[in-house]
Amino acid sequence: MLTYYNSNTGDHLFSLEKNGEVLEIFRESVSRSVTWWTRMHMSMLQQVNSSEDLSKIHSATRMKGRWEKLATDFQEYADKISRLRFGFIRSQTQNLGTLSR
After folding, report:
1. Does the pLDDT value for residue 14 go beyond 80?
2. Which of the chain's termini has less CB crowding within 10 Å, N or C?
3. What is the DSSP letter of 4?
4. Which tens digits make up the pLDDT trace of 21-75?
């Protein structure tokens, strides 16, 4: 127990010196705690920034993949329509040829 008066020795200075040592230990503990929390905060901010960067990169990559797939799907669709159109025109031409005979 900290007191301003040492009842065993009747020495006020002894108690103050002991309180000073305890306060110094407390100050060091608080300083270490502040340092630790500061490092944790900096580490957390670094991870947040890093994850935001990765999220942007992943999103852009995913969108690029979607656009590439959409372009491929559209080209396949256009090719199918072209074949259908060509087939339809050819069949119409053959029907006209048959009718004119």
Report:
1. no
2. N
3. S
4. 888 888 999 999 999 999 999 999 998 888 888 777 777 777 777 888 888 899 9
Largest Cα–Cα separation, the chain = 136
Separation between Cα atoms, residue 20 and residue 18, nearest integer Å? 5
Residue whose tokens read 């999103």? 59
| Residue corresponding to tokens 């372009």 | 71
Encode burial over 11-32: b for 16+ CB neighbours within 10 A, e otherwise. eeeebeeeeeeeeeeeeeeeee
- The structure tokens listed for 8 are 């065993």
Contact criterion met (CB below 8 Å) for 2 and 15: yes
Look up residue 16 and give its two tokens.
């103050």
pLDDT at residue 86 greater than cutoff 70: yes
Distance CA 60, CA 66 (A): 10
**Sequence letter at residue 25:** I
